[in-house]
Amino acid sequence: MSREKVQPFLINKDEDGNFRLTVRETRYNSQGYPLVTSQLQTELFKTATAARNFARDVFNAESGQYATK
Which of 45, 55, 57, 65 is the most exposed place for a label (fewest CB within 10 A)? Predict the structure, then answer.
């Protein structure tokens, strides 16, 4: 069982060179096991900074809540 904290916002670069934002939510079952659900956003961004700004404005993301792959 992994206890590693999952960052709620994942920023990836796709094969076309655009950046994509995935919003992740972590819940825990009755045994304390983390269950992570992911929702890929439809928006495309030219830079990772634009994706971070979108997450900040729409989802109230804060510094330190981003992960990159």
Answer: 57
